[in-house]
Design brief:
Blueprint (H helix, E strand, L loop, with lengths): L1 H8 L2 H26 L4 H6 L3 H24 L3 H24 L6 H6 L3 H21 L2
Pfam family, one: DUF350
InterPro entries: DUF350
GO cellular component, one term: plasma membrane
């Protein structure tokens, strides 16, 4: 079976489609995990027009996709790319908890839910910035 998969992935069009499909599925899974750890309903808040939640969620989406970019560029196989992107996601998740822990004066999730745009922007920039740091470490 691996030989057949290798033959299929040797075609650049099929390889692109395969990496794209896996990245989209993983993005949905990773966003679902982020949704479980936040204290607000991301999509309900976005539907209400909460720009802070949209910025924080957009930063997570960019960060996850950026990790996949680095993982795909620096690995030969789909499984290695997925492993590195998954590891990078875990590091982004840890960063989320560290960010919450390092701000004892207010709760990040509560401020984002209340549409504090400054906190939403900061959350977005942390996700994006750290995805570059993690991405640079991908081998």
């Amino acid at each position: 079976m691996n030989e057949e998969v290798d033959v299929l992935l040797s075609n650049p069009y099929l390889a692109t489609l395969a990496f794209f499909a896996v990245a989209v599925i993983a993005l949905v899974v990773f966003l679902t995990i982020f949704e479980l750890v936040t204290k607000y309903d991301d999509w309900a808040e976005i539907k209400k027009g909460n720009l802070s939640v949209a910025m924080a969620t957009g930063g997570k989406i960019f960060g996850i996709c950026n990790l996949f970019r680095f993982a795909i560029l620096n690995n030969d196989t789909m499984i290695h790319s997925l492993i590195w992107a998954g590891y990078g996601f875990l590091l982004l998740l840890v960063a989320y908890f560290i960010f919450e822990f390092l701000t004892p004066y207010f709760k990040i999730d509560e401020e984002i839910r209340k549409d504090n745009k400054a906190v939403g922007l900061l959350s977005m920039m942390i996700s994006i910035s750290l995805s570059y740091v993690v991405g640079a470490c991908v081998t």
